[in-house]
Write a structure and sequence with these properties.
The protein is an alpha/beta fold. It is built from twelve helices and five strands. The protein folds into two domains: 152 residues, 3-Layer(aba) Sandwich (Rossmann fold), CATH 3.40.50.300; 76 residues. It has a five-stranded parallel beta sheet with strand order 2-3-4-1-5, with helices on both faces. α5 links the parallel β3 and β4. α4 runs parallel beside α5 and α7 packs antiparallel against α8.
Length: 274
């Protein structure tokens, strides 16, 4: 299917789950960032709302894929710090309990669900404990550990495997990503950085190499990384990837210092945006 690259096994599972008379009320999509989970959520919603059994070509399916179906709703982080606010969950809950505009079903997708503020997560939990009839909730996350265990327990988990290098390159070529960025995305196994500039990747690589050589370096002094969130995200990705590889070979005090320093830097950076 041209709308989604890869994830054939997941798509087959979802079609079986969502085109019958019995279906789960909540799904949790778990997998690394930038591999197409949100796109698959649109496809899953199309399966669920399609009157022809998930054809992906009728008017209903096309409107869901475009985000225009009246019985489909997508919520994503917003507000200061990019969190999901309790007001969003309350509005989503009110919408979910209303009768469908068309047919008998509704779908609510919550992207980056791990970014729910605590009060928002508690409000969603109450809804999942007594879900409205005929409504499917799809939570999408790259960090399951940050979700309330009670929310996770009320969802059927769907795990996504990373895309292959060929699949990443296919998407990059389709959307016209520069060659340097395409190579980086293919090596990283994610499309998360497909919209960045080659210069941002080079800046992040230099900073990551510098920090790995000298864990005591104060990142706050590295203005070129600290000043741009996209560059900082690439930097974090690179350092974590290298750190995870080193940790598999054995733990030592130097790696512990780097790990603690990285967590503190991340807290300071994202905390400054709250």
């Amino acid at each position: 299917m041209s709308y989604v690259v890869g994830h054939k096994r997941v798509l087959e599972l979802l079609k079986r789950l969502l085109t019958g008379s019995k279906f789960p009320h909540a799904l949790l999509f778990v997998g690394r960032e930038g591999i197409g989970k949100k796109r698959v959520a649109h496809v899953a919603a199309s399966y669920f709302l399609c009157k022809k059994g998930g054809c992906l070509s009728c008017r209903d399916c096309k409107r869901v894929l475009e985000g225009l179906h009246p019985d489909f709703r997508l919520e994503a982080p917003k507000g200061k710090g990019g969190g999901i606010l309790i007001e969003q969950i309350r509005e989503l809950r009110d919408w979910a309990f209303m009768a469908p505009m068309e047919g008998e079903r509704k779908v609510a997708v919550l992207d980056d669900a791990h970014l729910m503020r605590p009060e928002a997560a508690n409000a969603l939990l109450k809804t999942l404990e007594e879900p409205p009839e005929g409504t499917l909730f799809i939570l999408v996350t790259s960090e399951q550990s940050k979700l309330l265990p009670t929310i996770v327990s009320r969802c059927q988990i769907v795990r996504f495997h990373p895309l292959s290098r060929q699949e990443v390159e296919e998407v990059c070529e389709r959307i016209g990503v520069p060659e340097e960025v395409k190579r980086f995305c293919a090596e990283a196994g994610t499309l998360r950085f497909a919209s960045v500039m080659p210069s941002q990747i080079e800046t992040a690589k230099r900073a990551a190499e510098t920090l790995l050589k000298n864990p005591s370096l104060k990142l706050l002094a590295m203005e070129e990384v600290w000043s741009q969130e996209t560059t900082f995200s690439i930097f974090l990705f690179l350092v974590r990837k290298k750190l995870n590889g080193l940790l598999r070979k054995g733990w030592n005090e130097r790696l512990w210092d780097l790990h603690r320093g990285l967590l503190e830097v991340e807290r300071l950076f994202y905390g400054s945006n709250l």
